[in-house]
Design brief:
Elements (H helix, E strand, L loop, with lengths): L6 E6 L12 E7 L2 E4 L2 E2 L16 E6 L3 E4 L2 E6 L2 E4 L7 E7 L14 E4 L31 H17 L6 H20 L1 H16 L1 H26 L3 H49 L1 H16 L1
Antiparallel strand pairs: 1-9, 2-3, 2-5, 3-4, 6-7, 7-8, 9-10
Length: 304
């Protein structure tokens, strides 16, 4: 049974057979015991029997096919409906999520993360969900996450290394493995823009915690507007629809001001960073001979 409220904004879930395949965007909203898939309420009798809805509020947005865990069971979207599914180990996940603790401190929000997950592992908190899934049960922050860019290239390098050994396999087996590895490598490459965003946000978090908090809040508020829009499209009560539209307008106005503030802060941050880089460049120029001598020692040491 869920006694907490969890909202997760899935920035991207990338899957597919080719880089050019268009991924369909899916949204799920769980509220007051009802499930809305892409804005359409799913009939109670069509919901999986294992689905526990009591006390659960969730708002999810992702692209491409995805499996995710709620409680002990795994679910996915098929034919516009939420259905129970088997766990999978082929999921890539980049998202920011939060639990009730966000109301007390924006820093409690989970950082942007990419996860290559194993279907054999035990369930973990939200940002450490296993089985190629993201888990709606927790709100603790993973504090030992590798640098996203390094993790990204380690993933890609590992896939390329596995491709190198295919020549030693029988032709039919090698063809199957090559197809699988190529597909997964394409998934990793496709996620690169989001990994760049993740790296940028981690850098911002280290340099300007206030700006980081506001950027996270900006994304969460964007997710809230999608939830409001979904409710507007699905409600039949004209008065409620009008109230929701007014709320949406107010929320968008608030987001606009927040975005303006964030962009101004980012410009100032970039200016400070540029000044710092110029200072580093001047320092390198002053220490030119020392840098060259040190590099010579490194190169000669590698040869010995």
């Amino acid at each position: 049974m869920y006694t907490q409220t969890v909202r997760s904004f899935a920035l991207a879930l990338f899957f597919g057979m080719t880089l050019t395949a268009a991924a369909q965007t899916n949204t799920i909203r769980i509220e007051e015991g009802a499930v809305f898939v892409n804005g359409q309420r799913q009939a109670a009798e069509e919901l999986p029997e294992t689905l526990e809805l009591e006390g659960l509020t969730a708002s999810l947005s992702f692209s491409g096919p995805a499996r995710f865990r709620m409680g002990e069971y795994t679910y996915s979207i098929e034919g516009g409906r939420l259905v129970q599914a088997e766990p999978s180990d082929d999921a890539f996940l980049i998202f920011v999520g939060r639990g009730d603790s966000y109301l007390e401190s924006p820093r409690a929000a989970n950082p942007f993360l990419m996860r290559r997950l194993s279907s054999t592992s035990e369930p973990r908190p939200l940002v450490q969900g296993q089985g190629g899934l993201f888990d709606l049960q927790g709100n603790r922050v993973a504090v030992t996450t590798p640098q996203p860019m390094r993790q990204y290239f380690e993933l890609l390098d590992g896939k390329l290394q596995r491709m190198d050994v295919l020549a030693d396999m029988p032709a039919s087996q090698a063809a199957i493995r090559l197809h699988q590895e190529a597909r997964e490598a394409a998934d990793v490459v496709r996620a690169f823009p989001q990994i760049e965003l993740q790296t940028y946000l981690e850098d911002v978090q280290n340099r300007n915690s206030g700006l980081y908090d506001r950027i996270v809040r900006e994304h969460l508020m964007e997710m809230e507007t999608r939830r409001l829009a979904s409710r507007i499209l699905t409600t039949d009560d004209s008065r409620q629809k009008q109230e929701l539209q007014e709320t949406l307008h107010e929320k968008l106005s608030e987001i606009f001001e927040l975005k303006q503030e964030n962009r101004r802060s980012e410009i100032e941050e970039l200016g400070d960073r540029l000044t710092e880089l110029r200072s580093q460049l001047d320092a390198r120029e002053r220490n030119k001979q020392e840098i060259i001598d040190r590099r010579i020692r490194e190169l000669l040491g590698q040869l010995n």
